Amino acid sequence: MTSRWTLSAVVFGLLIQPACLSIERADYHERKVDAGRLRDGSADGASAASECRACLSGDGGLCTPEFMACSADPACGQAIQCALAHGCLNIADLAARIGCATPCLQQANIVAGTPALDLALSLNACASSKCAGTCATLGP
């Protein structure tokens, strides 16, 4: 009985897997993101976005190499400009950051397995680590 149950669960999992892993293109709908206030409540989102952008791409910025590599790829460059415009890299909560940036990735036609996604993820990792003091500061 146990093996029948196990087999049924595996078959069911294989049947629904394609639906769970769908990477179909979704329609992009521009939205305004209200990322909230700084965790310490001290500054507004506009100044936080400016400080984050400086750390990412300014002269001597900690993530400038990653930013330049992303910007050199047309799709990654489009996606990162969109994400910056919407304040996505200033959102501390990873799930909220992904939710914010997903429409930007879709608009730029970035899907799993593309070099642009690797570049964007590299820049996001840098922003979350080296620029964590100026980026990823908004949220609860």
Number of strands: 0
How would you describe the shape? globular
Q: Spans of 5+ residues with little confidence (pLDDT < 50)? A: 1-43
Overall mean pLDDT stands at: 75
Give the percentage of residues in beta strands: under 5%
Helical run tally: 6
Distance between the ends: 48 Å
Biggest sheet descriptor: none
Task: Compute the CA-based radius of gyration.
Answer: 18 Å
Provide structural commentary.
The protein is mostly helical and 140 residues long. Helix content is 59%, strand content 0%. The protein is built from six helices and no strands. The chain has helices at 2-20, 45-57, 64-72, 74-85, 94-107, 115-129. The chain is globular, with a radius of gyration of 18 Å. It starts with a helix and ends in an 11-residue tail after the last helix. Mean pLDDT is 75; it is low at 1-43.
